[in-house]
Write a structure and sequence with these properties.
disordered C terminus; Helix Hairpins; single chain; 51% helix; four-stranded antiparallel beta sheet; alpha+beta; rod-shaped
Length: 493
């Protein structure tokens, strides 16, 4: 059952309501069914007592010759009436709870000064008593249906004769009956419908909060969520919006501070470069200029990353095959060796195209630089898209794979940027990919070397028929580029 139902607050609340009300309904019906006295009186006992009590009320004004007519008119299939000179039922002590129940009910309908004139008892048809012998003979003589149980009443009239009444007791319905099933079904349908409506409205703000939390992990500039719903949910939404604002200010402050530091470093680096030119020692001057070039390159890379991070590029749906083709073609045109495996047409990806091209370009160029070539392939799952970039270079020790994503950290020991770079490429790539809700991890390649694996969330609809050239260019993320930049869009590697 746990696997059949979604594990949500709405489901749990509905299940609690349905189970709780169903159990309550069953217990209430069980109490009703086990109320023995009420069941006994409801199935015929009270009817007999009330009829005799009413008859007793006007018995003193009825002429003797009219009693036989009353008896004849009162006899039905569910009430047997006779007049005798003696009481069929004597005043006896209570033998069980049934006797007690019918005597208590008689006391509620008959005045206290008349109770001595009554005899009343409960008797199964099989009882071997004088009263049951009398009624067995009566039922047999009149060819009536034999009952299982009877309520017997005898009333002493004003003229000294006795009015005798026997009422068959019908068996109460079983506990598990069609009536119980029908009432349970109506109750459950009503509860499920109303609880789904009410609980759904109550949990909708929580769903919005959950979606906003997921979006915050991708875009810190996401809009605030509405502060609606119950008081607890409103407080949670308000706290979430405050937290999001603080995170946004924190990121903006740190980014601006880093950008300012990188920008301000440009001036002293330039002054140092000018002063280094006056150093007479040629070897020392060369080393100083090389170090200044490295510093200037790192500052420029940092400023470039900050400028792109601060740019609010709109997110759109692009054709991943066209995007990869263009990136691979650009790197191939520079003389690098890149192999792109066949990719299904119109594999769509929701992303910021410029940022994603930079991330893919950094990773592929990294593979070419350290592995000699880059093999790019794709794997599509129902919810994820995996991009694999393999090379033939040396792998990275498992305990150092996370270190390469740290800014300005290089595993290559030389400080030559021609071989080691600035150490920002992988950091920038992972920042971009994580901003899209994905991630990057490193592993050993299937043919040796290093494998870089990008895991990206897949859009709801990944296969779409896009009929014209204008729409194709839009979904490839190339509509703002020159014809030369678009020339490789449909090239097959």
């Amino acid at each position: 059952m746990k696997n059949l139902l979604p594990d949500t607050i709405a489901t749990r609340a509905m299940a609690l309501l349905v189970v709780g009300l169903a159990v309550t309904h069953l217990i209430s019906n069980l109490f009703y069914a086990t109320d023995r006295e009420s069941a006994l009186l409801a199935t015929g006992g009270e009817h007999a007592i009330v009829w005799v009590a009413i008859t007793d009320a006007f018995s003193d004004v009825v002429p003797d010759e009219k009693w036989m007519e009353i008896v004849a008119a009162a006899n039905t299939e569910n009430r047997f009436v006779t007049i005798t000179d003696y009481p069929v039922v004597d005043q006896t002590a209570d033998s069980d709870w049934r006797e007690t129940a019918v005597r208590q009910d008689l006391a509620r309908h008959v005045p206290a000064d008349r109770r001595e004139s009554y005899g009343i008892s409960y008797a199964p048809f099989s009882d071997d008593t004088q009263a049951m012998s009398y009624w067995r003979e009566y039922i047999s003589a009149n060819q009536l249906e034999i009952p299982d149980e009877l309520i017997l009443v005898s009333l002493n009239l004003e003229n000294g004769s006795w009015l005798n009444v026997a009422t068959p007791i019908s068996a109460p319905p079983g506990f598990f009956s069609a009536r119980l099933g029908l009432s349970m079904a109506v109750m459950l349908i009503a509860v499920v419908f109303l609880s789904a409506l009410i609980v759904g409205r109550m949990t909708d703000p929580l769903k919005r909060l959950s979606r906003a939390a997921e979006k915050l992990g991708i875009d810190v500039q996401a809009p605030a969520i509405p502060e609606t719903g119950p008081e607890e949910v409103r407080r949670t939404a308000r706290a979430f919006n405050v937290m999001q604002g603080r995170i946004r200010r924190f990121v903006d402050d740190r980014t601006q501070m880093l950008g300012a530091i990188a920008h301000d470093l440009g001036t002293p680096i330039t002054r140092l470069r000018l002063r280094a030119e006056f150093v007479e020692d040629k070897e020392l001057r060369t080393k100083m200029l090389r170090d200044l070039d490295d510093m200037q390159h790192m500052v420029a890379s940092t400023l470039s990353f900050i400028r792109e991070d601060a740019t609010s590029e709109p997110q759109t749906t692009v054709d991943l095959g066209s995007l990869l083709t263009r990136v691979c073609d650009d790197i191939s045109d520079a003389g690098a060796k890149v192999e792109l495996a066949e990719i299904p047409r119109w594999t769509l990806l929701d992303c910021r195209p410029i940022a994603m091209r930079r991330a893919l370009g950094n990773l592929i160029e990294n593979a070419v630089k350290y592995g000699g070539l880059a093999r790019v392939s794709l794997k599509i799952d129902p919810e994820k898209i995996y991009i694999f970039i393999d090379d033939n270079g040396p792998s990275i020790p498992e305990d150092r794979r996370e270190d390469v994503f740290q800014p300005f950290l290089r595993l290559e020991d030389s400080r030559n940027r021609e071989t080691g770079g600035t150490g920002l490429g992988l950091a920038v790539a992972r920042t971009i990919v994580r901003a899209h809700g994905g991630d990057i991890r490193l592993s050993d390649g299937p043919e040796g070397g290093l494998r870089v694996e990008l895991c990206m969330p897949r859009p709801q609809k990944t296969e779409t028929e896009i009929p014209n050239k204008e729409t194709r260019e839009k979904h490839s993320g190339l509509e703002n580029h020159s014809p030369r930049e678009r020339k490789t869009e449909w090239k097959t590697h």
